[in-house]
Amino acid sequence: MPDSPTLPALLALSRAHRVANLALDPALSRVGLWLDDLALLTLLRDAGEGGLTRERLAASAAMPVSEALRRARQFEKLGRVRRTDEGAFVLTADGDALVAEGSALAASAGAAWTEGVLDAAETATLADLLGRLGAARS
Question: What is the CATH number of the domain that holds 37?
Answer without folding.
Answer: 1.10.10.10
